[in-house]
Recover the amino acids of this structure.
């Protein structure tokens, strides 16, 4: 059984459809890249899987369950935005995660934070964007979740911090788990993908094993992305 | 290890709000103490002014409780904090229960502070009147001076009624503000959630006022009639008992309505609202 099964997923805001008949599966132990231009529905898809957006059409199953209390316990979600309050500190976040998540490894989180040179007592408001991203990532990746959903974990951070974040993702996820990662910095990240979902205008444009796509097209995923969406723009103009 | 999720939710909320409520209590304590010390000045006018000031502060305390409770609920559920709160591994029922209990505790704190300030305000106010009537003959007629103890008694009954209402209606008020905020975060309304929160809460107050007026009209035949009770003190005593009964009845209605509002908010959280 697939870990994630999405079938005919539809979502609209008002009268505007942001997802149209989306269907895909994620197998256990795979790192899946969710790629696409701005506004194509990546974040919406991730929020539905994380249980933040009700009112969708179609079917969503995570480990056999629709998004509910159980799926929230097996999904570790990293949103695009910082969800920690400005006055909170890493030590406060560690307490929250320890209180609520049975699969949270506090020692591992503290170890990751130490490696990233993050002061446990420093308020979030005094941290740079990169430090806030690292802090949230450390919390998320310190859970023994079945599915990690990472929405633009590299957005707005410098290249050195991106490398640290990527390494933290690879070092701390378990092989039984799956990762769904969205990014626009494809060339920095594509080396880690097992599978790829390319989205455009709320639909899956291209999907498959990353190596097979690279081999079939003789291009990197970044080049495939540019080709697909450059073509889409040209067709739209015509 | 079995986790007490409700306790965790309340504890998490406490860590977010303790500084604000702590500041609120310190300000109220300083104000109350300052006005109380005015009682030793022996100046009737100052006491009257202090009393009125405390009435206003009592009102502000209740207003603060309502607004801050709603603000915290919106912040923790529908702003960026909502990405954490609404992805916690708890059911919507548990989440809402934790939030309601935390909000009710905050509201109770504000209501009790408000009642204390009100009681102190009235005490100073009546002291001021008595002093003025002693040193400024003609301020009050002899009959009015004779009525003062009865007025004190009626005021005490009013404060007791406020206290009962503040305690037993706190969950209802909290849930009403939560409902207003939740409704304001449905779909495209969330773009102007502050405006719609106020509008929905205002609508709730209008409905409450209407229900209260209807209640009073229906209860009027049972109200003590001054014509049947020519002794003023007996009349006021009967009026106090009537007010106490009406207060208990309205508290009961509020608690029952709270259950319905809770279920409605839970349904909206499961089906309609979203974190933007």
């Amino acid at each position: 059984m697939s870990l994630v099964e999405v079938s005919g997923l539809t979502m609209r805001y008002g009268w505007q459809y942001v997802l149209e008949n989306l269907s895909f599966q994620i197998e256990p132990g795979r790192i899946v890249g969710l790629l696409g231009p701005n506004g194509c529905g990546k974040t919406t898809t991730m929020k539905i899987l994380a249980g933040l957006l009700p009112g969708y059409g179609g079917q969503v199953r995570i480990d056999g369950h629709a998004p509910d209390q159980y799926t929230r316990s097996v999904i570790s979600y990293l949103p695009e935005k910082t969800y920690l309050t400005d006055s909170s500190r890493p030590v406060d976040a560690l307490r929250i995660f320890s209180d609520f998540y049975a699969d949270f490894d506090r020692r591992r989180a503290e170890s990751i934070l130490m490696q990233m040179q993050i002061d446990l007592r420093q308020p979030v408001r005094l941290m740079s964007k990169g430090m806030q991203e690292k802090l949230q990532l450390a919390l998320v990746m310190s859970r023994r979740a079945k599915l990690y959903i990472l929405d633009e974990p590299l957005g707005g951070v410098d290249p050195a911090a991106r490398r640290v974040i990527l390494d933290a993702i690879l070092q701390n996820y378990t092989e039984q788990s799956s990762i769904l990662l969205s990014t626009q910095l494809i060339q920095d990240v594509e080396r880690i993908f097992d599978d790829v979902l390319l989205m455009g205008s709320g639909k899956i444009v291209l999907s498959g094993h990353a190596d097979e796509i690279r081999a079939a097209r003789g291009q990197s995923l970044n080049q495939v992305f540019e080709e697909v969406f450059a073509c889409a723009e040209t067709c739209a103009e015509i | 290890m079995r986790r007490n999720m409700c306790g965790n939710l309340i504890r998490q909320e406490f860590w977010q709000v303790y500084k604000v409520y702590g500041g609120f209590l310190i300000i109220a304590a300083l104000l109350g103490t300052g006005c109380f010390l005015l009682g030793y000045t022996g100046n009737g006018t100052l006491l009257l002014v202090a009393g009125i000031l405390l009435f206003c502060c009592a009102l502000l305390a209740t207003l603060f409780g309502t607004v801050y409770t709603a603000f915290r609920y919106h912040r923790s559920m529908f702003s960026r904090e909502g990405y954490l709160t609404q992805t916690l591994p708890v059911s919507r029922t548990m989440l809402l229960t934790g939030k309601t209990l935390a909000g009710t505790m905050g509201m109770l704190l504000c209501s009790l502070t408000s009642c204390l300030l009100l009681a102190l305000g009235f005490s100073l106010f009546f002291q001021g009147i008595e002093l003025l009537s002693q040193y400024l003959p003609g301020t009050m007629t002899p009959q009015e001076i004779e009525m003062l103890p009865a007025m004190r008694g009626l005021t005490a009954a009013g404060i007791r009624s406020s206290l009962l209402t503040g305690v037993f209606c706190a969950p209802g008020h909290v849930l009403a503000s939560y409902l207003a905020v939740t409704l304001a975060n449905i779909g495209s309304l969330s773009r102007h959630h502050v405006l719609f929160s106020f509008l929905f809460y205002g609508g709730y107050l209008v409905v409450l006022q209407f229900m209260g007026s209807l209640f009073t009209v229906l209860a009027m035949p049972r109200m003590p009639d001054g014509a049947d009770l020519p002794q003023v003190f007996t009349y006021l005593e009967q009026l106090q008992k009537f007010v106490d009964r009406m207060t208990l009845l309205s508290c009961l209605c509020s608690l029952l309505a709270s259950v319905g509002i809770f279920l409605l908010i839970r349904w909206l959280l499961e089906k309609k609202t979203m974190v933007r």
